[in-house]
Fold this sequence. Notes:
Low-confidence stretches: 263-311, 491-502
Distance between the termini: 98 Å
Largest sheet: 6 strands, antiparallel
Helix content: 25-40%
Strand order of the largest sheet: 10-11-12-13-15-14
Strand content: 15-25%
Number of strands: 18
Mean pLDDT: 78
Radius of gyration: 31 Å
Number of helices: 16
Amino acid sequence: MAKALALVGVIAIVGGGAAIGFAVTRQAAPGMTPAQTAAMTRAVDQLDAQINARHEAVKARADTIAAYRTVKDASILDRQTAVDMVDKGGELKFQLSAGEVIELGQIARATGKLQSLFVQPAGGAPRSHAGKPGSYAELVGDQLVITEVSRVEPRPNYEPELAAQVAGFLSVSQPLALAPAIQSLVAAGNTGKLVVGASELAIGVMPAGATTHAQELLAQPGAKLVAAEPPASAARSLPILIAGLAGAVLGLVLLVLGLRGKRVPTVDARAPSPPPAMTGLGHAPTQYSQSGVAATGTPSSLDLRGDPSASMSIVPQNLGPGAMIGRWEVVRRLGSGGMADVYLAQARGDGGFEKLVAVKVMHGHLARNQRAVDLFLDEARLAARIQHPNVVQIQDLGKIGTDYVIVMEYVEGVDLERLLMSARQAQRTVPLPVALAILGRICDGLDAAHNATAPDGSPLGIVHRDVKSANVLVSRQGSVKVVDFGIAKAATQVHFTVAGETKGTPSMMAPEQRVGEQVDVRADVYSLAAVGYELVTGQAVNLDLAALAHLGIENWPHLPPPSSLRPAIPVELDAILLRAMAFEREHRPASCAVFEA
Length: 597
């Protein structure tokens, strides 16, 4: 009888507790529905990708125009002359894309006064930003206007007296329509606003006093998407709450009566309790184990079976310091591109072991695009085949939930583009022996890529196709490493470039690559020589075939001899660099090894 009373009491307590829990939780239903949360994440991913792509396009456009000889000359002339070059001569008349605005201006060196020389189209709204070089974004109506301001340097020894008085700048602005990303939010019932600096774009009608949820846009500092959380859905159900309390009290009484009617054995307090279950990493469950790199050099997929977090997607906004990507703990975000975000992370093991890595996380919205996924995975597969100290090593490749991740060697330092920009800003040049040593190490890394083989010894035929200073890392210890085989071409890759499709950086592309022809290692030799030109002269290079088509192919490349820009350069180096950038590939060195020699 006592046992039965105790059992009934336990059941009543459990039932009463469940009723209380149900009544209490009904008053605070979650604010945003799963559909609303998913729509917000998709919108953030979409905006990040679009803003990144537009920033890159506008920067390339500004750099290309700023390199025109006519623009260089006009930047230090008077306003009327510049206007005549637009309206009468047509030398500065540009074909504009929809909504594009181009401004050429100058700043008086003595007073800092800014003067606009011309704006195209006439009546367009210029965005000079005080002529300060950099990337900018402004919210205008339902558009985000992306602006790139570039410094315009006059040709050497051209009108030196005028060049000493003024500094030229070029501003290029292009609008980005925000409606596509915003519509997905409205369709899911989200209300809120897009905030860019001090400006806001309303999304529906924000309820007064609503609790909000914000997600930062990684592609644009100071920009965020703010969504209102709907009010709590239902009030507390008083009858259910009272019934639950009554049931719990009755159950407690029955349990006490039942326990009084049976003998309770004493417990030996000295008896040891069983130790808690442990995993390979102390008391914390292992998020997943690294399956390692196969002997052939191809990374095998991360083993996520049995990991409770494997079904969850990575949310970029949550990846702050201390967040986990698999078994790697995020230290900080290193950067963001059109395809992925890159994070500095660390792995920890027994005995105080720590190792820093760079983790590349593909943008979530691209995971539904099989072509983009193939491109991302090809990067890791190809780079993992290249075992060389002058190529960044791939350590792992895998998928966490629906997100694709590449784990790479972390190089503590800067990319070569930043190093050269810093040198230019300080009006310094890289010492010639250092510049040539860096160029030699790039040659070694690319030559290793070009000669990489499959496990059976057959050549892979890798061509990097995007050799530029931004894709060369220089460490604090002095090592030089080629990175980013994201658009590399190989005979064994999964994705293929569509005939006529152009990939790479136009200002550094070989002519045959710019027009979509098949390329071989001599396209990389061409781009490598362009990097070498920047290294030894300190001058930025723009050899976009489309931009320079009006000059023809005679005397290609259209660059002054390096020794004319820097007297310390041996004239023999002029011929080596310029021949490697020959218009016809047959006139270039046959390989990076030949070029280096």
